[in-house]
Amino acid sequence: MLRDFWNGILKENPVFGLVLGLCPTLAVTTAMENGLWMGLAVIFVLTCSNALISLLAPVIPSRVRIPCFIVVIATFVTLVDMTMHAFVPAMYQILGIFIPLIVVNCIILGRAEAFASRKPFLNSVADGVGMGVGFTGALMLIGGIREVLGTGALTLFGHRLLDLGPSYPAALSFILPPGAFLTMGLLLGGFNALGNYRAARTRQRRRSALIERTASRAEAKATPTGPTAGAGAERGQQS
Amino acid sequence: MKFVAILVGGILINNFILARFLGLCPFFGVSRQVETATGMSMAVIFVMTLASFITWLVQNLVLVPLHLEYLQTAAFILVIAALVQFVETVLRKTTPNLYTALGIYLPLITTNCAVLGVALLSVQQHYGLVEAVFNGLAGGMGWSLAILLFAGIRERLALADIPPAMRGWPIAFISASLMAIAFFGFQGLFKDLFLR
Lengths: 239, 196
Known about the structure:
The complex is a heterodimer. Chain A is mainly alpha-helical.
């Protein structure tokens, strides 16, 4: 269950790993706080819909499952929509139509179809929270980068976390639509480069381990007490 | 004049992909070849125009008189899902040629947020029926223009020598960014036609 939770944050991060749910990812991330609120809304919808769908899945006929999932998701989205309209009207204005559009966010329907409809209740909840947190983290990262580069400052709930001062020439284009695509492209490229580097390093390590092992095996064959020495060397390798 | 403004605004100025960020998943998903992008664009224009029409009727003839505006999200998405299913069935029965061309793209459109987005925007702007339909048409055409241009770029990108880490998704996003910069130039065009 813990694995289901971490899976959404790191390995299958919905934004950087699966590249899903792009519209809100790029549209609302002009500031870190916007990303956070969007993420919170998605965590709520994703967790609730995953939970309810995993409970309902056995009684939903598989032919009409997609419309049923959509109704479940739309219910929770309407809840979020009305709650945010009532309690955080300023943020509701900023996020605009992207709150009702959570309904068509591919992550939520995707998780309902691929995970919640076939797994037990608690695992589905863990998956929903994990995926939601991973999505929120990605949105805050993109939002943070765009806010810092675009305005030279970082503000969260009215607290100024970072201020580059008036000498920083604010690159306004990072707040504008082109900056969203650019930030996302460079981040994905960075993660790819990191992944390639780590893959190359593990390959290297595996290869050198293999060379060592064959060398020690050859050595063990050469000595008269072959089998025991060889086994010992191999055990040493494994530990 | 208003219809020209809606068309120009939807296609160039407030382009659905490059300025409003609606319908990005299929934009990146089916833009590897111009041919598939063409099929998808036709399907999107068709469904967006039709969906604008139907959702306007649902909003103004059902939801508003019954004071059920809070059901908007659920009602719209169900209407769109049903509409897509209906279009698919009708096409399969009447024009098999068009169906084979568009068939595989139609189910994808239900989760294309551009369709629901255009319906919600038309409600937000208090458009009349004809304006809403024009808005849907313009949105679909803007979406298609962007994906067709993008597919052309990606076909050439496939042959380019790109650093390994930037291949695939990253370079696609950066190309889209450059396209968005180009489309940003339209903001200054038609100052008095500018709609928001």
